[in-house]
Amino acid sequence: MVGMYEYGCCKANIEPLERSILYMRDGLVAQVLVRYANHPVMFVLPKYVIGKGPLYARILRTNLQRVVYHYRPREVASITGRVFDPCLGGPVHTTNTMQAVACDPMCRRSEVLANPRDVLEEDASSLFLQLEMNGVVVYPTGSILGYYHNERMSDIDIVVYLDLSMWRCEDIIEVLEGTLEPLPPSEVEFWARSRNVTPHYYRKWVRGVYRAASERRVSVTFAVTQRERYCENMFVYNNRRLVEHRLKIEGGDCRVLLWPHVVEVNDDVVLLSFDGVYAPLLYEGGVFEIKGVEGVVIGKDGSVKKLIVVGIAEADTWLKRIS
Question: What pTM does this model have?
Answer without folding.
Answer: 0.93
